[in-house]
Amino acid sequence: MKADISSRKDIKHIISKFYEKLLVDQKMIPFFSDIVIENQLEHHLEVITDFWNDILFDTISYSNNVMKKHLDKNVFVTFKKEHFTLWVSYFLETIDTYFAGENSERMKTRAQSIATVMQLKLNLFTDK
What we know:
One of its GO terms (molecular function) is heme binding. This protein has helices at residues 8-22, 33-37, 41-57, 66-76, 81-98, 102-121. It is an all-alpha fold. It has one domain (8-121): Globin-like.
């Protein structure tokens, strides 16, 4: 039986494995190429780990505005629904590969909610 997510270390493991998937997907890499080129991947993983640690364990490590970050990125690399579909599928798959339990389910639910809100803010549910 798999253990549940119980620490920041567990979250960092998920985020690291998740990014391994994102960074080899040709549809997803454009969103992260600047981070990789500038050798900021490890820093980025720490920031994302802080974000999820705050969500799961009520800490206060993440101080950025996650929505603004994505709106700013959208100016340079346009988000489409398929990007969110891939993001969610990789994220859920990564969690399910390594963990199971209440925190795991909560992390997956929150990821789906966040993806939905971002798509709404980016007007990806409108008919164009």
